[in-house]
């Protein structure tokens, strides 16, 4: 991508029972280095494909933390922000259920820590940025609705 109009980013609020998988972004990341975050990344430029957002979420989760998530995705929210390089990023968040594997840092250039954290633990963590807390609030709302079904 030489000069994209938008960068499309997907992120996963992965839950296992009543905990969410939270990563600490690597200090080497160009955007938001060293902060707590959901797992996610860019939709890669490829040939046209069906389910591009869902496939991108599954790929990013596997690449960054080495786990599988279920095929059941629930939309949380979309928002946009300007990256540190000045690109407009369209961000789409999904609630995803943990399926299998032991989460670990797959690339030290992207993830420096992984943690299973409870909802209240995330909201009270001083190292969690406001945008993460907002996303977790929305994810928890969707999770509670989905779990009742």
UniProtKB/TrEMBL annotation:
Residues 5-140 form the Nudix hydrolase domain. SUPFAM superfamilies: Nudix. Transmembrane segments: none annotated. Belongs to the Nudix hydrolase family. This is Nudix hydrolase domain-containing protein.
